[in-house]
Fold this sequence. Notes:
Radius of gyration: 18 Å
Shape: globular
Amino acid sequence: MTWLQLIVLSIVQGLTEFLPISSSGHIFIVSRLFWNADAGASFTAVTQLGTEAAVLVYFGRDIFRIIRAWFAGLRNPRARGMDYRIGWAVIVATIPIGIIGLLFASTIRDGLRNLWITAIVLIGFSGVFWLAERVATQRRTLEDVTMRDAVVVGLAQSLALIPGVSRSGSSASAGLFLGLNREAAFRLSFLLAVPAVLASGFEELPKALGPSTKVGETVPLMTASGAQLLASVVITFLIGYAAIAWLLKFVEHHSLNWFGAYRVALGVFLIVLLATNTIPAR
């Protein structure tokens, strides 16, 4: 991987990680379209360490308060308020994606990395956004989150293992279906993603520094050096932090349908490229 490729892909990751348009799908598309190569699922997972660091900083006070309240609630039942419940929600919601990620690691890393799948998912999941906005009551806030909500959002988050779905899009849509308002749904999705993404990033780090080619694949797998991965984490952190601030303000007054329209346009564009053999699917 050249430094130009590293910088471009890191900017793409930082811009798209929190927007419900799929960062993994965008990195897959950009690396294939411009360089006829694959940045790989491991590289994507490592770059997400930067964007999750942005979550830790942006929501630092909230996260510290939740952790403190969770431990306090374990000792004292009378201290079990909203933050205590959110702490348990984060734990419970992480279980589905952890189990599925471990059981189907090879399929996720290689089998699902097909641009036809990405294109179809980009278009199809925009329908989920539309339906979520259609039925959403938006009457509930973070104070109303229950363990049932955590299970549902956690299962929805697992869909993000498929390139093209979007972690924030799937979990925030689930939140809307459950009656949460948009800001609460996205805040919850950011908090729930922290342990899963950090665990995935550190677990995939050795693979990201591995061999630069795939046996039997039609395109090479780009490999980043340790210095490049570190630079990528810094870039994605800075851009990701700004993206969080922008998105939370945007969703206060705008629906997910804006992102759904973009996903449909990108999916159709991708299908045209694939159908004309401009880029290979794998």
